[in-house]
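Extended Data, panel c. Modelled sequence:
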Amino acid sequence: MDEEEEEVVVNQMEEFQKLKLIQLKTIMKKIKK
């Protein structure tokens, strides 16, 4: 794997983490209601 590929993978992981966080927050809001 070259450095550019590695960077893309890291970026994808970060995006995935953000999505997971948003989903979690949304679920928590629904539960609280």
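Helices lie at 3-32. This feature is highlighted in the accompanying rendering.
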